[in-house]
Amino acid sequence: MSEKRIIRIGLLGFGVVGQGVWKNIERNRSALEYRLGAQLKIEHIVVRDQSKVRGVAVGDIVYSEDPACVVDNPDIDIVCELMGGTGKALELTRRALEQGKIVVTANKALICEHGEELFATARRTGAHYFYEASVAGGIPIIKTIREALVANRFKLIFGILNGTSNYILTRMEREGLSFAETLVDARKLGYVEADEALDLDGIDAAHKAVILAYLAHGKWVRLQDIICEGIRDITGEDIEIAGQLGFKMKLLAVIARDFEANKLSVRLHPALISKKEVIAGVDEVYNGVSVTGDVVGTTILIGRGAGQDATSSSVISDIADAVFMLQGAPNPVISEEDEAVYKELADGLELAHKEMLRGRYYLRIHVKDQQGVLARISDIMSKEHISFATVNQKELEDGTAKLMVTTHESDEASIERAKAVLLLEDSVIGAPVSFRIFDPAKA
Ligand code: NAP
Ligand code: HSE
Q1: Nearest protein Cα to ligand 2, atom 8
Q2: 400-407 and 388-395 strand pairing
Q3: Active-site residue among 208, 248, 402, 419?
Q4: Which ligand 1 atom minimizes the distance to the CA of 88?
Q5: Which ligand sits nearest to residue 192's alpha carbon?
Q6: Does 208 participate in catalysis according to the annotation?
Q7: Does the beta carbon of 46 lie inside 6 Å of ligand 1?
Q8: Do 81 and 93 touch, CB atoms closer than 8 A?
Q9: What is the 3 state secondary structure string of the chain?
């Protein structure tokens, strides 16, 4: 019997995901090694504080606080960057790629902010940068777009890319809880990132949307150039009224390409979406991505978007690809020239102006419950050519009322102008809140 090659792996980071990679390689070692035709050996584990008590026992492997034992070690075949952040992780990823190494990552923030540079470095040095776990946890969305759906041009990719915010919205909807109450539970369950803004303000999902936009269209979009809005403004009554109107409230990433106008819209925001859409039924911490290609039509993937096991499943799948490559499986080598050709496909591709967005809207306006208020609001809206499709009113005990309206098709600029005028109106209390109504058929 021939000896299997030993593939040596170094882990940078041994937190939630790092420990999951360890645990799941151990759990399925024999099947995995049979499928890969190689032995896997985690050789070094680098952490910030080696004295910390860990959730798994790693035998005789010693922890180190010195990343050089992985990054600069010629015996390490695969470097897994599972530290997170864009500081030390950037420095170490750069260093490994400069040396032509294989790097596997789950770090969406790093790819979103520095992907262009890191992929260019990998091409220049012959290194490889794998990132399946960076988008939608355990859902194999990167490979699906890059490999399985390679025959397609992608008119629309949309979906739920943040598990924590989806969990919060689901509990608010099902149990009538407030955002604040649900957030407490999400924190207790360990769902919310240490930097809560990543989950609650949409930044984490926007990072993932930027990665998918690059993968599908070859264009790196800057986070600051896209709509990125989180879930903090959503109230129980918004969810309730949306439900009565046949919608669910979801935090959606949308990557829509108009091939004729050569425009790309990348955005991340809460939206009302018809309950009839499959993505509307993706609840709790699950993620769901709908991909519409011009050849295949629409394909929808649903699965666990976060957590130790789901995320480590994707990391191990990248490790497997790296192992096949190390064993001589053909791997397309993308040269600078190839990349230039690919970039030409995105040449002249412009980011669509936010103000040009069209669609239906939901607005919540808090008003003094006086005669003629609705007429005045309607007047302000009609000056912007916005007409109401539905109107709901909720009277409050303090003599005020909340108006929840949906509009017929309008555009973003008109809605924003109307909101600015409403803000100055005597009978309006506080700033009106609006959410987009997302219809995939019109995206
Ligand atoms: P985590 O639990 O906070 O673990 C981070 C690990 O990195 C810890 O072991 C930490 O060491 C180590 N580390 C951090 N900074 C370091 C430094 N400067 N030098 C050496 N070691 C350092 O994070 P995680 O949840 O596993 O996430 C890891 C990556 O996966 C992140 O990019 C995250 O965005 C991504 N991701 C996570 C999930 C998820 O569900 N958790 C899902 C998808 C993607 P100590 O243990 O000593 O502190
Ligand atoms: N905070 C992220 C989420 C982790 O809730 O989806 C997975 O990327």
Answers
A1: 306
A2: antiparallel
A3: 208
A4: 18
A5: 2
A6: yes
A7: yes
A8: yes
A9: CCCCEEEEEEEECCCHHHHHHHHHHHHCHHHHHHHHCEEEEEEEEECCCCCCCCCCCCCCCCEECCCHHHHCCCCCCEEEECCCCCCHHHHHHHHHHHCCCEEEECCHHHHHHHHHHHHHHHHHHCCEEECHHHCCCCCCHHHHHHHHCCCCCEEEEEEECCHHHHHHHHHHHHHCCCHHHHHHHHHHCCCCCCCCHHHHCCHHHHHHHHHHHHHHHCCCCCHHHCEECCCCCCCHHHHHHHHHCCEEEEEEEEEEEECCCCEEEEEEEEEEEECCCHHHHCCCCEEEEEEEECCCEEEEEEEECCCHHHHHHHHHHHHHHHHHHHCCCCCCCCCHHHHHHHHHHCCCCEECCHHHCEEEEEEEEEEECCCCHHHHHHHHHHHCCCCEEEEEEEECCCCEEEEEEEECCEEHHHHHHHHHHHHHCCCECCCCEEEEEECHHHC
Q: Is the CB of 91 under 6 A from ligand 1?
A: no
| CA 55 to ligand 1 centroid distance, Å | 14
Kindly identify the ligand whose nearest atom is closest to the C-alpha of 162.
2
Residue 106 CA to ligand 1 center (angstroms) comes to 9
193 Cα to the center of ligand 2, angstroms: 7
Delineate the domains of the chain, giving CATH numbers in brackets. 5-137+309-345 (3.40.50.720), 141-305 (3.30.360.10), 355-442 (3.30.70.260)
- Counting from 1 in the atom list of ligand 1, the atom nearest the Cα of 163 is 40
291: tokens are 């991909």
> For each of the chain's 443 residues, which pLDDT tens digit applies?
568 999 999 999 999 999 999 999 999 999 999 999 999 999 999 999 999 988 888 888 889 999 999 999 999 999 999 999 999 999 999 999 999 999 999 999 999 999 999 999 999 999 999 999 999 999 999 999 999 999 999 999 999 999 999 999 999 999 999 999 999 999 988 788 889 999 999 999 999 999 999 999 999 999 999 999 999 999 999 999 999 999 999 999 999 999 999 999 999 999 999 999 999 999 999 999 999 999 999 999 999 999 999 999 999 999 999 999 999 887 766 677 777 777 777 778 999 988 889 999 999 999 998 899 999 999 999 999 999 999 999 999 999 999 999 999 999 999 999 999 999 999 999 999 999 999 999 99
Give the Cα separation of 253 and 271 in Å (integer).
10
